[in-house]
Amino acid sequence: MATVSNMTVSVMATNQMSSMTRGVETIIGYNFNDTMILWEALQAAGSTVRSVGTRRFDDGNKRLAVLGDTILKLVLVTKWYDSADARVRASDMLQQVGSNANLDRVGRLNGLDAFICRNPSQGGHISPVTMTATVEAILGAVYLDSGIDNVSQVMQTLGLVFPRAGGQIWQIVTCPPFPISSPRETIYQLT
Question: At 186, phi and psi to the nearest 5?
């Protein structure tokens, strides 16, 4: 019976991590200075990966997801604040863009589900909660890596929001239910 050395397993794990992080960087249009923070963002709760270097994440990407959810809201409300739009617009933006259903759809439409390190007990299935947490965790990772301006750009790249022509605030675009032909296809836009 053949055995695999720890060195071989380590090289295989490093290659998998590099491949997955590069794939996500391509999707989101942002290259990380610290890819370990992105690797943490890709760990579903219950994943077999619990740490990288000195960084521990026993509950997968959940801590980063809490941060990312807050950063998503901060980006949206800051854009709203800089505009002349009514207060109800801020509430609409937060509800539409930040909803679990929207974050789940955006993550799947962009193919992020292929890069999540899954919980082995879930048989390879990525639940909506897991996808939502991963999108939020990626936004949190971008924030920790480089700040809020890049989070805004990643949100646009993913299709969470689009700049309004000639305006100060983004248009909110919610993704339609499946099937659709393109991640950029929309049902409606709030103006």
Answer: -130, 155
- Write down the H helix ranges in 42-147: 62-81, 87-97, 100-109, 128-146
Please tell me whether the peptide bond between 179 and the residue prior to it is cis, using omega within 30 degrees of 0.
yes
Quote the pLDDT of residue 124: 74
Distance CA(153)–CA(137), nearest Å, equals 15
pTM for this one?
Answer: 0.79
Within a 10 A sphere around the Cβ of 8, how many other Cβ atoms?
10
Give 112's DSSP letter. Answer: G
**166 CA to centre of own chain:** 28
pLDDT tens-digit series, residues 89-110: 888 889 889 999 999 999 999 9
